[in-house]
């Protein structure tokens, strides 16, 4: 029981650190281009990963370097889409739409991993995308093409997660995380050089804090799932929307309207039901499918 309480605390802390990272991304978007933000997210984020590698004793040796590179290339697009969206849209909008990755992963698992999905989960996926449409409000003056960025990010993230699920059959999670950070930073290095914007001392601190928040969040997440079961911790993923609304109000004076709140509730119910059905069917739920943040 004590382990469960510790795991829940670690899980909630990991969600908070992820949302704090999002706050810093949104703040930094006022001074930097997205290429520079993505690069430093991975550059500074690799230091907590190295600590995790040392603590776990995981090896950097891998026989699937090409698969790691493919995952990183897809993650580059996912990160750019999400980070650009954070600079333009309210935190709550991006956070709620990012949960669409759970529905997309469920669909991709049918074709790539050969999983069977019944009519109830298809219905949950359908209603989940209705929730996304409610948040988007296509056809209204509030909708613009930038609103599609988090959805594009969720699609790319879903492909990256499917690849990671295959990689975990060969490599430990810290190994996968190391190659993701290293390769994304290397891919974005030329963009950084040609789009360089000199940070002030305060901005350097914010860039470092952003990377460390992401790395620390992943360490907390890994240890939470090590101490407790997926089914117990899964509901706490959805607190990300609450924290996004709270921090959006505090730091950016963003007040979510009723459409964002209603759409978020529909998305949460739909994605939660997908996981509930898989649990009911006696399937082992992979943490990759339930946690919408892997970057």
Brief account:
The chain starts with a helix and ends in a 5-residue tail after the last helix. It has one domain. It is mostly helical.
Q: Which SSEs are present, and which pair or pack?
A:
Layout: H1 2-28, H2 34-56, H3 65-88, H4 91-98, H5 100-112, H6 119-136, H7 149-167, H8 173-194, H9 201-227, H10 230-233, H11 239-252, H12 258-280, H13 287-290
Helix pairs in contact: 1-3, 1-9, 1-11, 2-3, 2-8, 2-9, 3-7, 3-8, 4-7, 4-11, 4-12, 5-6, 5-7, 5-12, 6-12
Features:
single chain; 295 residues; mainly alpha; 77% helix; globular
Overall SS class: mainly alpha
Q: Give the domain tally.
A: 1
Strand percentage lies at under 5%
Q: Helical region count?
A: 13
Q: What oligomeric state is this?
A: single chain
Rg computed from alpha carbons, rounded to a whole number of angstroms = 18 Å
Instruction: Name the shape in a single word.
Output: globular
Number of DSSP E strands = 0
Structural description of this entry:
This protein is an all-alpha fold. It has one domain (2-290). It is built from 13 helices and no strands.
């Amino acid at each position: 029981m004590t382990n469960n309480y510790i795991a829940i605390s670690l899980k909630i802390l990991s969600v908070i650190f992820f949302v704090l990272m999002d706050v810093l991304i949104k703040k930094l978007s006022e001074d930097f281009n997205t290429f520079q933000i993505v690069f430093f997210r991975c550059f500074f984020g690799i230091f907590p990963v190295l600590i995790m590698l040392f603590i776990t004793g995981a090896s950097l040796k891998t026989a699937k370097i090409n698969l790691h590179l493919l995952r990183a290339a897809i993650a580059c697009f996912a990160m750019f889409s999400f980070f650009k969206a954070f600079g333009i849209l309210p935190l709550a909008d991006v956070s709620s739409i990012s949960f669409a990755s759970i529905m997309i992963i469920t669909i991709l698992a049918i074709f790539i991993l050969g999983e069977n999905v019944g009519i109830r989960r298809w219905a949950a996926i359908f209603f989940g995308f209705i929730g996304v449409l409610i948040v988007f409000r296509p056809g209204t003056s509030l909708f613009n093409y930038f609103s599609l960025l988090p959805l594009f990010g969720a699609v790319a993230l879903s492909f990256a997660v499917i690849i990671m699920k295959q990689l975990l059959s060969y490599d430990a999670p810290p190994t996968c995380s190391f190659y993701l950070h290293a390769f994304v930073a290397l891919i974005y290095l030329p963009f950084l050089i040609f789009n360089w914007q000199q940070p002030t001392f305060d901005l350097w601190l914010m860039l470092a804090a952003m990377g460390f928040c992401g790395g620390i969040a992943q360490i907390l997440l890994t240890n939470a799932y090590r101490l407790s079961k997926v089914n117990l911790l899964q509901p706490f993923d959805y607190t990300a929307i609450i924290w996004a609304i709270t921090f959006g109000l505090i730091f950016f004076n963003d007040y979510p309207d009723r459409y964002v709140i209603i759409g978020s509730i529909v998305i949460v119910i739909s994605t939660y039901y997908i996981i509930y059905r898989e649990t009911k069917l006696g399937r082992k739920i992979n943490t990759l499918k339930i946690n919408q943040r892997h970057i």
